[in-house]
Write a structure and sequence with these properties.
The chain has 2 domains: 106 residues; 211 residues, no CATH class. 53% of the residues lie in helices and 0% in strands. It is built from 15 helices and no strands.
């Protein structure tokens, strides 16, 4: 089983650098031993790790006939369920054996207890209510919603300063039944939305994200949220409270519909780079070199475009699932 060291590191730029090295060694250099070394180094050095990295490491290790269950076991501490692995085609042949593995079942109980104790449930409930209200408010007239969005960005800025970014580290991964597990089902997201009738029938927890989406959904509606929050986002990244690729998602959101005259909040030209992490941004209308984008990614501790392309090929050809989170941004 993976264990953390006694001397914990708190600068998550080091964590992300090691994860990026692991991915580069495997997807670009075809060096499995170096890949595993950097994954293990990151996981053993930090008390909190991003569960999607553990799941990706498990896939790579399994594909290369290396020990992989240690990553699954560690993942239980951060919200992983065996059911999440059903999403991964690579694991189709072993899924039933994983589901019935008595050792994994025992480790799950231990890890799940630790995970539930790590969640700030009052904070989660606050963000639930804020995100549900935002889903209703977005249908208001533009001027009225614009005023509400200004209030929302102020509230979120205050929340971040007082409690830290409302992301996976504090709120856990999206899970429609998480409050039920502590005996409070009336606070589950599907229970809370009932008061809005059928207006939010479409809105769900998205249980298979391996990340928290709620704050990001609110911030996506605020076109200039990156500009408003860039300093606190940088600090939050360093503390492990937001994934850098989620920041990239918000950054690229500034460029959505910009050609059609959408809300402008840009201080920089796109020639300085975009992240290519927002699925609804029309990048064909953006002039940006690959080098510029990779340079921007490097400044925010994100792997290169070449690594992302290789990961997509492994998904298509070998049945991996390597992109997770809101809009598959992480």
């Amino acid at each position: 089983m993976l264990q953390t060291t006694n001397c914990q590191i708190f600068d998550y730029t080091l964590y992300h650098n090691d994860i990026n090295k692991a991915e580069k060694h495997f997807f670009i250099n075809d060096e499995i031993d170096s890949c595993i070394y950097y994954y293990d180094k990151a996981f053993e050095s930090f008390e909190f790790v991003f569960v999607k990295d553990l799941v990706n490491a498990a896939q790579i290790a399994f594909y290369c006939n290396k020990p992989y269950k240690k990553y699954i076991i560690r993942g239980f501490e951060f919200g992983l369920k065996i059911q999440h692995l059903k999403e991964i085609i690579l694991f189709d042949d072993i899924y039933n054996s994983l589901e019935n593995d008595e050792v994994l079942q025992s480790e799950y109980s231990i890890g799940r207890d630790k995970y539930l104790k790590s969640i700030d449930f009052s904070y989660l409930l606050n963000i639930y209510n804020m995100s549900l209200k935002d889903q209703i408010d977005k249908n208001l007239p533009d001027a009225e919603y614009a005023s509400i969005k200004r209030e929302n960005i102020y509230k979120i800025k205050q929340i971040i300063e007082n409690k830290g970014f409302p992301g996976t580290k504090y709120l856990g991964v999206s899970d429609s039944k998480i409050f039920s597990e502590i005996g409070k089902p009336k606070f589950d997201i599907d229970s809370l939305k009932v008061k809005y009738g059928d207006k939010l029938e479409y809105y769900s927890a998205d249980d298979n994200l391996l990340a928290s989406k709620y704050a990001l959904v609110i911030l996506i509606h605020i076109r200039c949220s990156f500009k408003e929050l860039s300093k606190v986002l940088r600090t939050s990244l360093k503390k492990g409270k937001i994934h850098p690729r989620e920041i990239g998602l918000l950054y690229d959101n500034m460029f959505r519909n910009i050609i059609q005259g959408g809300q402008r909040c840009l201080e920089k030209n796109t020639s300085e780079g975009v992240f290519y992490l927002n699925k609804f941004c029309d990048y064909s209308k953006i002039k940006c070199s690959k080098d510029a984008s990779n340079s921007l990614r490097s400044k925010w501790y994100i792997g290169t475009l070449d690594v992302d392309e290789k990961k997509k090929k492994y998904e298509k050809i070998h049945g991996f699932k390597l992109f997770w989170g809101f809009w598959k941004s992480i």
